Amino acid sequence: MFRRNLWKIILSIAVLLWAGYSLNPLEDRDFAGYVKSMATAKQSDFNLRLSQAEERVKSKRSASVYVALKQIGHEESLDFSQYFPQLRLEDSLKNIDKRNNILLDELLKRSKGNIRLGLDLKGGVSATLEADPAALAKQSADGRDKSKLAQAINILTDRVNADGVAEPIIRAVGENRIEVQMPGVSTKENPDILLNLVKVAQLSFRLVHENTSAYSERPRDVPAGYEVLSMDRDDPHTGQTTEEYYIVKMIPEMSGENIKNAIATTDNFGGYQVHLNFNDKGAKQFAEVTTANRGRLLGIVLDGKLSSAPRINEPITGGSAQITGHFSARDAQFLANVLNNPLDVPLQIKSQYEVGPSLAADAISNGVKASILGAALVCAFMITYYMAGGVVSVITLAFNVVVILAVMSSIGATLTLPGLAGIVLTIGMAVDANILIFERMREELALGKSLSSAHAAGYDKAFVTILDAHITQLVICGIMYVFGHGPIKGFGATLAIGVFSTLFSVLITGHLILDCLIEGGVLKKFPMLHVFSKVKVDWVKIGKPAFYLSWSIVLVGLVFLFVRSDKALGIDFTGGDQVSMSYAHEVDISQIRTAATAAGLTDINPSYQSQLGGGQSLLKVELPYGQTPKFVDLMISKFPQAGFKQEGVQAIGATIGKEIEVNAAISVALSLLAILIYIAFRFEFGFSIGAVVATVHDVLMTIGMFVLFGGQFNSPMVAAILAIIGYSVNDTVVVFDRIREELKLNPTGNLRDIVNLAITRVFSRSLMTSFTVFLAALALFVAGGGVLRELAFTFLIGIITGTFSSICIAAQVFYWWHKGDRKHVEAHQDIAPKYEWAGSSRASE
């Protein structure tokens, strides 16, 4: 036994150790204390510098210790790497400022907790950017673009994501402004993040005057049509930066608009550069410029600053070029990022705010408590119903959660409240694999097999079903991630991580634990409750009335959706107003939400924001169009002691808007197509038709019921609907897999009996799985609030309708598709079962 399981033991221990390493530390550490503990050389000298930095912060000469250390290093030409010899920097990098930036950035990163929290849990930075109205008007007049602001939003989204900020909120505010919210970001520690965000990155190639090269001082005599541009030059010996001056043509030979992509790479000497690839037009232009000006210097100018001035030794016809300039790795990557996402509309930073968590502390606490309650209920049920097997499943669930969090930590994923809900729901669905195995073991034990044999057979027979179910779910997660934005992408990533971790924890670790307990003689019996042992129903017979009844309910829900379609979409889709209110005393956000809900004001999103650098703090509230006067009057009358006063109101654009509406529709359509193709490939086409009909039923039923009970759709709801598709298909695949198995085991049985038998044998498993997920969702619904409650409600509906459709619709549609004839199934299977019989099948209704 030990030898057989050795690889599982080693792999499970390795994964657990890796997870522990990845999660440490869980919380942010004080930067000053952390760098003090990390300084291993010349500690007394470094402690003196650290004290100077802390004094700067106290006297408000620096925003943070991190910034103060950079300032001290620059002012005194002090290389901080001497205090941290264990952190090796590039030997070729001599510039002290760049070395300090890289070193302190790394130390700051290491001081942070490895679980990144979203804006709703931790806060972050909010900024309002303004585009020049004249530039927008000119571009519209030129006919070059119909929505430059929308294009700028897309570019900013790419830039923010490239900078490692997950799940940002970027949207239009008014006619020419953009609001950017970045979770977990602090301008005290990253003061240039907003400046880098709005960098225009206009690139041009200009010839240097043919009779000049570099000057150490700014030249006075400049020919007509030329100007003087400077370039930083790092001394390779001293590390000091000096300026060199070049006389450069004012009119460029070509611009950077025809760059296909830019990639940060290393050169032959270990330095960093940016490699440019041109499109066909750009390649032709660059070849002409380098052919006609062989032997001259070609200045590469970025936003008016000379980056490098290489000599054209020969014509360059390959359609590529390099920008060199003594870059650090971070500089080169930043330059490549802005060149790949060029802004052609200048943006100015009009306001900057530090955003407090948008949920009150008690609401966050309730969300965490609800998540813990959901997990506890699932664990309690599994132990009660499956006893020893339940204990094993709880151990694998704990292992599962640790792995999920560790993977999220290692890839830099952001944990938000919707993501937390996704983890809890993953826990509920993860026990499905355990239930499948345990129910299979029950069947094997009923045949008189030993516990060891029943355990082996249970895993073997459940393996393919588990794999099929999780692959279909993984496909849905992939679609969420590719076509989603913000919370949708994050929700899809969380669920996908859960799929992989569930497969590993159940099929490797869980199997190992149970095998050791059984083979080691610790477990001699495997007791389980059995509530549904005597269920005998003609499932095919009830299929038609169930089909007509459920689709009638779907129709009612769709009619109601059409009638109140104007109220069914939240701010994420429709946009709304943002009202700013000053106050004398802060009121807890949970109280604001409660008062607004009681007054009939739904879909509001309040947050406290403090202006950077001091100044007035404001309560900013997003709410649907037209509700601002009512909300302001409510706040003034409900909380007179707070001294609320309206300071301004402006229209905000949809966070996800038309693009996400289209992407949501594409995501659902692709999900259904993926289901159709995968199940047709793994089973046969009749099965895929049944799965698609059942899934469409579940989606429409969930949407209709959600709207019927007054829900409003926002981006997390889109993610929830897509997750329900994955859950529904998961349940349906289990039924189909059992039908396929019964077809092979019962070569003389007619199709009606086979379908009824298969559903009966998975009925207990379907209800048990649904009940565990239902418990998790119910805990979130009862104890959670805000978006957690809405997500949970959506899942409660989806669980009920998904379970119903997998038992009463999917298999019946498969049966009707094949006209109740077994031979019709075998004739359309890619690999038909080989039976040694030649009888006729009885077609039934």
Short description:
With 845 residues, the chain is of the alpha+beta class. The chain contains 27 helices and 19 strands. The protein has five domains: 29-111, no CATH class; 116-200 and 351-355, Alpha-Beta Plaits, CATH 3.30.70.3400; 203-342, Gyrase A, domain 2, CATH 3.30.1360; 361-524 and 537-562 and 658-828, Multidrug efflux transporter AcrB transmembrane domain (Multidrug efflux transporter AcrB transmembrane fold, Up-down Bundle); 576-652, Alpha-Beta Plaits (2-Layer Sandwich).
Question: Could you please describe the fold and organization of this structure?
Answer:
This protein folds into 5 domains: 83 residues, no CATH class; 90 residues, Alpha-Beta Plaits (2-Layer Sandwich), CATH 3.30.70.3400; 140 residues, Gyrase A, domain 2, CATH 3.30.1360.200; 361 residues, Multidrug efflux transporter AcrB transmembrane fold; 77 residues, ACT domain (Alpha-Beta Plaits). Helix 25 packs antiparallel against helix 26. The strands form 5 sheets. An 8-stranded antiparallel β-sheet has the order 3-4-2-14-17-18-16-19. It has a 4-stranded antiparallel β-sheet with strand order 8-5-11-12, with helices on one face. The longest helix has 33 residues. It has 27 helices and 19 strands. With 845 residues, it is α+β, with helices and mostly antiparallel strands.
